[in-house]
Structure formats: C-alpha cells, structure tokens
Write a structure and sequence with these properties.
Layout lengths: L20 H7 L5 H13 L1 H18 L8 H4 L6 H31 L4 H31 L8
C-alpha cells in the first residue's frame, strides 16, 4: 500500500517528530497542552513548517471570512406558484393515479383469466396486494400525522 505524502511536508531538512494533522490542530487550538508545546517548539526551529503553518492560517482566515449568499425563501419553494400551475399539478397527479390503477387492474384481470395455475395467480395477487396494503398504510399514517404535524409549515 502506497502512502500519500505532501511535498511541502516531506522536505529532507524538516524531521518533524509529529503527524502533519497537528499543524491544523495547532491553528484551531484543539491540541492538548503537550501537543501544542511540541508543535510550538518545532515551529521555532523549522522554517518550512512555520511557512506551511502561516499558509494554512491565511487559508483558514480567507475561508472563515467568506460570506455565502443565502437564497430567499421563495427560491426554496417547489410548490406550484400560480392557480393554473397548481390546477395542472393536481389534475396531473389525479390522471396519473387513475391511469396506474386502470393499467394494474387490466393487467390483473388478464392475469386472472390466463392459463396460469391457481397457485401462480394467488402468488402474483398476494405479492401485489401486500405492496398495495403497505403503500396504503403509509398514506393513511401521513394523512393522520398531517393534522398534528408541528413542522408542516416549516419551509426550509
């Protein structure tokens, strides 16, 4: 297994007696007193690590000072925005549900009238019935929970 080494950290003159992650821990003030003292003493003697630590500190300062633009609430909303698009959305879902029920009903009718044995028919209908019942239980639970859901109107 090959070990990845950063060129800036493996210069021949360094001889750092600790892992490179301690440099970022030093900048974040997340080291124990012993580790911090070991890094501080090393930085006094090693110009390469001191330069690397200064570069890391500059990068940290730049990234911490970067401001991000937060989109407005209306940009997060994915619901239809107008009456016509809301109507089209609702009618579209209704048509899709009716189509799926019709296709599945037709397929089940054809399968029941087919030449398969009774066991094969019951296996197919049993599996499909189980899926439908599980889906129905989820829909019923979601409709019940919707009445008392404290986070229903939370938009982000």
């Amino acid at each position: 297994m090959t070990e990845r080494k950063d060129l800036a950290l493996t210069e021949p003159g360094c001889g750092r007696p600790f892992d490179e992650s301690l440099l970022t821990g030093y900048l974040d003030h997340a080291l124990t007193q012993e580790e911090e003292q070991r890094v501080r003493v090393h930085l006094v003697d090693c110009g390469e690590c001191r330069k690397l630590t200064e570069e890391l500190a500059m990068m940290r300062k730049t990234t911490m000072g970067t401001e991000f633009r937060v989109p407005s609430d209306d940009q997060w909303d994915e619901r239809p925005r107008g009456g016509a698009s809301g109507l089209a959305f609702g009618v579209g879902w209704l048509m899709l549900i009716v189509w799926v029920v019709g296709v599945v009903g037709f397929a089940l009718g054809e399968a029941w009238q087919g030449t398969q044995s009774l066991g094969e028919k019951l296996a197919a209908f049993g599996g499909l019935s189980a899926v439908v019942l599980l889906l129905l239980s989820v829909v019923i639970d979601r409709l019940r929970a919707r009445k008392s859901d404290r986070y229903r109107r939370v938009e982000k």
